[in-house]
Amino acid sequence: MGRIQATFEQLRQQKKPALIPFLTAGDPNLATTEALVHALVSAGADLVELGMPFSDPMADGPTIQAASERALAAGTRLVDVLALVRRVRQHTNVPIVLMGYYNPILHYGPERFAREAAEAGVDGLLLVDLPPEESGEIADFLRQNGLCQITLLAPTTPPARMAQLAAQAEGFLYYVSMTGVTGVQQVDAGAIEAAVRELRALSPVPVAVGFGIATAADVAAVGAFADAVVVGSALVKVIASHGHEADLVERVGEFVRDLKSGLNGVAT
Asked: Phi then psi for 209, rounded to 5 degrees?
């Protein structure tokens, strides 16, 4: 049993949803990202998503676009992201999912990437711009190395396709709570609950919800019906505002602890 499956199984037995915070690797620099990942885990993160910085992050809003720009300006490359995971993995068993775009991986080499990611301790990969039908070049390499290919679904996904993708899902499903890019709207929990409950019935894996979740109240509302809650832009904004301050790591830890508090008493 992989780390993702084991974590969700433990949470299922406890009837608790997972908290999955997102950071862009290398924002504001790699050393700080490493400290921030440990802060996330200490604050109660059940899984961690690490963004692979890319120059054209088309699904991301201004907040995460700016984080990618800062990371790239700091010299962060894909090989550095894998090295970061390798260092973090020496101190934590929390599942780590890399999220990003296919171009850097294509340039790196899909087979090499899958092998080295697994060796580093990565558990899954979520590629925003690579639909399952077009992922054959990397899907086999991921599978051979025990990595989950995480699937994104959105409110605009046709029902038949949603059912097909849900049935084939690995690790967990990532349900995008709204149309548009990250970080520009607030989530309407009532509008997405029916879709998530339908997905939970269709999918052999847990369903996580992301996009637009910013507060402990949002986390509580979504955690009441989802298996996991993803918080990205709101956390990246904290880093953007305090990235060069001495207490950044403590601020991020406090922010994530507050988010985690939203799940106290919430049962899935």
From this structure: -120, 130
CATH number of the structural domain spanning residue 234: 3.20.20.70
Residues designated as active site: 49, 60
Q: Which two tokens stand for residue 213?
A: 């979740």
Burial string for 68-99 (b: 16+ CB within 10 Å, else e) reads bbbbbebebbbebbbebbeebbeebebbbbbb
Task: Identify whether 178 is part of a domain.
Answer: yes
pLDDT one-digit tens code per residue, 123-138: 999 999 998 888 888 9
Number of domain units in the chain: 1
Q: Per-residue pLDDT tens for 188-212?
A: 667 789 889 999 999 999 999 998 8
Which pTM does this prediction carry?
0.94
Q: What's residue 186's pLDDT?
A: 56
Is 9 inside a domain boundary?
Answer: yes
Parent domain of 178: 3-261
